[in-house]
Write the structure tokens for this entry.
Amino acid sequence: PNQTMKVAVASKNPVKVQAAQQGFSRMYPSQSLVLNPYSVSSGVPDQPTTDQDTRQGAVNRVNNLAEIEPDADLYVAMEGGIEEKPDSQGRSQMWAFAWIVVKDKAGKWGESRTADFILPKSVADLVRTGVELGVADDIVFGKSNSKQQSGAVGLLTG
């Protein structure tokens, strides 16, 4: 019998909820999925600036989500981050990436990090002044609320 799988998503951002829907639909093609989005604390800055903080933010969101929604079958969090590091020419660049953490109700974990990419200088310069990446993208690309639409990847890849 086809059982319904309850998936709790640690974000109300439609892009992240859709990504979870697509991913879990591929992983569990014979399951009916019900995704429930939640706003939960990451316990790290709104714009994590290290790989470690970004990963910890996703871990914290999954753990916080499991506390407020104990009946879900799966919990997922996606945390976007940035980090300053040199490129292959030794120039300091701002790189963007994300961590994804999944946990089931038995406590089994899975986690992965995306590839990273260099942000355009105009975006990076704004982020260095304390502007969150999504807002910086909106300013540079003339968009509104892009982080809940295509996000930085969508803006940069068209």
